[in-house]
Design goal:
Layout (H helix, E strand, L loop, with lengths): L4 E4 L3 E4 L3 E2 L15 H13 L4 E3 L8 H10 L7 E6 L1 E3 L5 E3 L3 H15 L4 E6 L8 H13 L3 E7 L3 H8 L6 E3 L10 H10 L2 E2 L14 H10 L3 H12 L12 H9 L7 H7 L1
Helix pairs in contact: 1-2, 1-9, 3-4, 5-6, 7-8
């Protein structure tokens, strides 16, 4: 039996199949994507379909994705968890700059609070660990924001199992986000640690950025279930581990419906063995 829910941070129940907002912005997560009304419609439909975990970031746009979330969903339904990220500065569609200085993290978090129209961000994730700033300073700044009530839980994006272990020595961590999908399992050691510690794992690129359509085994199983290959890829994540909480994103209502319908696919033990 595949559980539909996960209790994040030991206290916040969310539907494991969530929604990511990166695709609501332009190429390279830069600038707007078409008519904002389309993005608003997708966000509202996601929540209508039962999504309770919406994953965004301050640098998607920049700022655009967070503003769209607020426009579409504020005032927020009870039980809806808005997760956002800070720690990366964008200056173009191809330029990313990591900045984990405590004063910058505080400023980023407070800007996200304003854009999202929140008093407290349910899950605030450090988008990247800054190698130029001691981890204790970066995590200490987030822990201080948590103590002040500006964030509720802390997450990490793109870390190793060893980095997560070290972070857990400094503060509680409720989630991680790493690339993980049917064809990319390099973060398997991190997944095992998350399972042992009850930490949510939000895999990014859960659909392999389109590469899954070329996998013949996925296509074969999809045909047997009357499903799309992408639905099998998402179902595989949901069956693979109870801590995996994929948040596939899209700017298309039709694609949104397809992604969310993946939660209804029940893979057999033979399917899982074939997919590996």
């Amino acid at each position: 039996m595949v559980s539909e829910n996960f209790v994040l941070g030991g206290e916040l129940p969310v539907r494991r199949l969530g929604f990511g907002t990166a695709q609501l912005t332009g190429p390279g997560y830069w600038g707007p994507r078409g008519d904002a009304r389309d993005a608003v419609a997708v966000l509202r439909r996601a929540v209508e379909r039962g999504v309770t975990l919406v994953d965004t970031a301050d640098n998607y746009g920049p700022a655009i994705a967070e503003e769209l979330v607020a426009e579409a969903l504020y005032p927020y339904d009870e039980g809806l968890l808005i997760a956002t990220k800070g720690g990366v500065v964008r200056t173009s569609d191809r330029a990313w700059h990591v900045d984990g200085r405590p004063e910058r993290l505080r400023a980023m978090c407070e800007a996200s609070l304003r854009r999202l129209r929140l008093d407290t961000i349910g899950l605030y994730q450090l988008h990247r660990l800054d190698p130029a700033v001691p981890p204790a300073e970066q995590l200490g700044s987030l822990a201080a924001l948590r103590t002040e009530g500006k964030i509720r839980h802390i997450g990490l994006d793109t870390v190793t199992a060893e980095q997560l272990e070290a972070a857990l020595e400094l503060t509680d961590i409720a989630s991680v986000q790493n690339r993980f999908n049917l064809l990319d399992r390099d973060s398997e050691p991190l997944l095992k640690l998350c399972e042992a510690r009850g930490i949510a794992f939000l895999p990014w690129f859960p659909l392999g950025n389109g590469s899954l359509t070329a996998d013949p085994e996925c296509a074969r199983i999809a045909a047997a279930h009357g499903a799309a290959p992408g639905q099998i890829a998402l179902a595989w994540l949901l069956h693979r581990s109870p801590v995996l909480c994929p948040t596939p994103g899209t700017g298309s209502l039709a694609h949104l419906e397809e992604n969310l319908d993946a939660g209804r696919v029940r893979l057999t033990a033979e399917d899982m063995a074939a997919l590996g």
